[in-house]
Amino acid sequence: MARAPRAPRAARVRRVSRVPRALRSPWLWIGVLSAVVVGMLAVGGVFVSHWANAVTARPPGVGTEFIAPTLSKAQRALDSDLTPEQQEAAEYLAAQPSTYWITPEQDPIGQAGATVGALAKQARSEGKALSVAVYGLPGRDCGNHSAGGLEPDDYKTWVAEIGAALDNARDVQKIVVLEPDSLALAPECGNLDERVTQLRGAVAALQSVDTWIYLDGGHSSWLAPERMAQLISAVDVADSVRGFATNVSNFQSLTDEFAYAHAVASHLDGMHAVIDTSRNGTASAGAEWCNPAGQTVGETAGEYGDDVVDTNLWIKPPGESDGPCNGGPAAGKWWPEGAVALTAAAR
Prior knowledge:
Blueprint: H1 26-43, H2 45-56, H3 73-77, H4 84-94, E1 100-102, H5 112-126, E2 130-134, H6 152-167, E3 174-178, H7 186-189, H8 192-206, E4 211-216, H9 225-235, E5 243-246, H10 254-265, E6 272-276, E7 309-313, H11 336-343
Parallel strand pairs: 1-2, 2-3, 3-4, 4-5, 5-6, 6-7
Helix pairs in contact: 4-11, 5-6, 6-8, 9-10
């Protein structure tokens, strides 16, 4: 590549006028500089804080430690009437680093921010990262087992509250899995345009220092990588999110999901991924997604990653039902028998 031409040498140096004696004192300039710094801190304190945190912000990776939320349903189950085996399973799962799901049913408007604040407080005290899934879109799950969500205006209010709480925890590393199934399910539901608009608004509301957002990325037994990449691209927020999350609430193998994440990312310049390994220890469910029998917990969070996959996470908390199928209760409810089955080989 050709070098840029060198600037021509000046023909002669112009004489600089002499500085008045009153302005030569170093103490004068120290005072001026101090006043400028104080003024910047007073007027631009928020900017300085953001800049300082931006310097230290780091994406999740292999070795990142995540909290085991004290607000988890596994933890809450310990106070219920359980058999010894169910108690052992709940204790095991309550101790595992996992993602907390913020839903309007559990954490409505007026409470969601306080929940994020409590989780951030725990992460701060333990010196660990925080992982949350935001799950409250209007018409969520297209009326299937996880149906629900908020009205459009309420959804904007809700995510704004969550975003403000995330922004108040700038000293905590935060991972946000945004609306699982929202994109992969959109073609089937016929609401892609609506979803794209909603997700763009949510991303804008949730952005903060050291907050890493991952959109829905489906999984390896669902949509083709090219199609999944098209859906992610449609949201058009590549500069605002870290990437996408795969295998959320599913059971596909870690090997298949790594290959899938790489295939999807090859169509998305610079995007990264996280993989849900909470229930893929056996990975024999195939296309069955609703409480399939014979499955086990997978690799714990922060164990695997590469240049595309930031790391693996426990996104779907094991022990929470997929829905009223195969003996399980309603979606999201604690299922003691399911927890026992999933952890039989791990306890």
